[in-house]
Amino acid sequence: MALSSDQGKPGPQSIRAFIAIKLPDDVVGFLRQVQLALKKEGLDIKGLKWVAPENIHLTLKFLGNIKNTDIDAIGSAMQSAAAPFTPFTLSATGLGAFPSVKRPRVLWSGVGGDVEILARQHSRLDEQLSELGIEKENKKFKGHLTLGRIKGKVNPDSIIDAFSRCGNTASRGFVADRLYLIKSELKPGGPVYSDLLCVPMGVE
Fold first, then answer.
1. Residue 69 and residue 56: Cα distance in Å, rounded?
2. In this predicted structure, what is the pLDDT of residue 1?
3. Catalytic residue among 16, 22, 122, 144
4. 122 is catalytic
């Protein structure tokens, strides 16, 4: 069975979706405080849109638009990818920007803990989804938690300075034990997420 995904507007029989690891409430609260600290350090600037803390998640695979009829097949691929992995521990730590601090478009918190296991989990998921016809990632996976997105030009020195004052803390460790298939609906007030599937790790 071959699936395909695209990045455009979903049609009546399709949805915009991604696969992610969700964060516990205290880590969400930690990231909220990081955002507030960055704002106080001068990053409450025009062109920077902060992600609502409750919407922050660890994305493993953005699928784009998929058909409703493909959800079961994607769920099976997720189960095959999650089964060999027992739960592992991650944390939110450090700060960075894509593609670079000097040309920032995305501000993020890094991921610490069992990052090698996370990378293997991502690789297996990518492989399982590729068997359905979903294209593999063409760049090395770097786990991150998106804090904000920038449109237009900003002074990179202000970001570097804010990062240097706010980037030396880390959240408590949290257990990554489930993969979620999440529906994303783009609304005027921001995206609205809803869970479609939840797949536990380590279950055959």
1. 27
2. 41
3. 144
4. no
Q: Which two tokens stand for residue 30?
A: 């930690």
User: Average pLDDT of 70-76?
Assistant: 97
Hey, is 121 helix, strand or coil? helix
Q: Is the pLDDT of residue 88 over 60?
A: yes
pLDDT value of residue 170 = 95
57 is catalytic: yes
Classify domain 14-200 by CATH architecture.
Alpha-Beta Complex (3.90)
Domain boundaries, the chain: 14-200
Q: Compute the distance between CA of residue 81 and CA of residue 8 in angstroms, rounded to an integer.
A: 27
Contact 48, 104 (CB under 8 A): no
**What is d(CA 183, CA 196) in angstroms, rounded to the nearest whole number?**
6
What are the strands, taking DSSP E only, across the chain?
Answer: 14-21, 48-50, 58-67, 88-99, 104-113, 144-150, 174-176, 178-187, 190-200
If 0-12 CB within 10 Å is exposed, 13-18 middle and 19+ buried, where does residue 59 land?
middle
Catalytic residue among 17, 20, 27, 57: 57
Give percent above pLDDT 90 in the chain. 78
